[in-house]
Write a structure and sequence with these properties.
single chain, 277 residues, mainly alpha, 3 domains, two-stranded antiparallel sheet, 4 helices
C-alpha cells in the first residue's frame, strides 16, 4: 500500500471515528437530554406535589383558622347575647322592684290618708256623741234636782213642824204655823230656784258658748273634710270608707269627670251618706 493510500486510509478511519464519536455524542446527548427531561419532569412533579401539599396544608390551616374564628365569633356573640339578656333581665327586675316599691309607697300613703280621714271623721262623730251625752246628762240632772227639791220641801216642812211642835197647837194656830212653814219652805225653794236659774243661765251661756265652739269646730272639721276629699278622693276612688260622702253636696265639689266615674262605681245613698255596693 502506498503512502497516499495509507494517508487516505487513515483519513477515512479518522473521519469514520469522528462520525462514530459524533453519533455517540449525539446518542449520549440525546440520552442526557432524556434523562435531564425525566429528571426535570420528576423534579417538577415533586415541586407540584410539594406545592399541592403546601397548598392543602395552607388550606387546612386557613380552614382551621376560619373555624376557630367562627367559633370564637359565635362564642363572643353568644356571650354578648347572654350578657345582654342577663342585663335586660336585671333591668326588668330592677324596674319591677322599683314599680313594686312605688306601688307599696303609694299604697302606704293611701292607707295613711285613709287612716287620717277616718281619724278626722271619728273625732267628729265622737264630738257629736259627746254633745248628745252632755244633753242627756243635763236632762237627767234636772230630773234629779227636781226630785231633790221635793224631798227638801218635805224634809223642811217636817223639820219646822217638829221644831214648833205643831201637833200640840190648836187647829187655827196649826194652820197658821203650817202656812208660815210653807212660806218659809217656798222662800227657801224660791232661793234655790233663783240660784238654780242663775246656774241655768250660766250653764246656758256656757252651753251657747260651747255650741258656738262646736259649730266652729264642726265648720273647721267640715271644711277640712271637704279639703281632704278634694285633695285625695280622685285617686282614692274605690277605697273610700263608708259614709265619707254625704251626698250631692260633696259630689258638687268635684268636676264632671269625677262625678261620672263615681256614679259608675255602683254606689247607693243611705242615711250615712254615699256607700259603695
Amino acid at each position: 500500500m502506498t503512502e497516499d493510500q495509507t494517508e487516505k486510509q487513515l483519513k477515512l478511519e479518522k473521519m469514520t471515528a469522528t462520525q462514530r464519536y459524533i453519533e455517540e455524542f449525539r446518542k449520549q446527548e440525546a440520552e442526557w437530554r432524556r434523562l435531564e427531561r425525566e429528571r426535570m419532569e420528576e423534579e417538577n412533579r415533586r415541586i407540584r406535589e410539594f406545592a399541592s401539599f403546601q397548598q392543602r396544608r395552607e388550606e387546612d390551616r386557613m380552614a382551621k383558622v376560619r373555624e376557630r374564628e367562627e367559633t370564637k365569633q359565635f362564642l363572643q356573640s353568644k356571650l354578648a347575647e347572654n350578657m345582654a339578656k342577663e342585663q335586660q333581665q336585671r333591668d326588668e327586675m330592677d324596674q319591677v322592684r322599683e314599680e313594686l316599691y312605688l306601688e307599696e309607697q303609694e299604697e302606704a300613703e293611701r292607707q295613711k290618708e285613709l287612716q287620717q280621714m277616718e281619724k278626722t271623721i271619728r273625732q267628729r262623730l265622737e264630738m257629736q256623741q259627746t254633745y248628745h251625752e252632755q244633753v242627756a246628762f243635763k236632762q237627767l240632772r234636772q230630773k234629779v234636782e227636781q226630785e231633790e227639791e221635793e224631798a227638801f220641801r218635805q224634809m223642811m216642812m217636817a223639820k219646822f213642824a217638829e221644831d214648833d211642835r205643831i201637833e200640840q197647837m190648836n187647829a187655827q194656830k196649826r194652820r197658821m204655823k203650817q202656812l208660815e212653814h210653807r212660806r218659809a219652805v217656798e222662800k227657801l225653794l224660791e232661793d234655790r230656784r233663783q240660784q238654780f236659774l242663775a246656774d241655768k243661765e250660766r250653764e246656758l251661756a256656757e252651753r251657747e258658748l260651747e255650741q258656738r265652739r262646736d259649730a266652729i269646730r264642726h265648720q273647721i272639721i267640715e271644711e277640712e273634710r271637704q279639703k281632704l276629699l278634694k285633695q285625695h278622693a280622685t285617686k282614692l276612688l274605690g277605697y273610700l270608707p263608708k259614709g265619707i260622702f254625704k251626698g250631692d253636696e260633696d259630689l258638687n265639689l268635684f268636676d264632671e269627670d269625677f262625678r261620672m266615674n263615681f256614679q259608675k262605681s255602683n254606689v247607693n245613698f243611705s242615711d250615712d251618706g254615699w256607700d259603695y255596693k
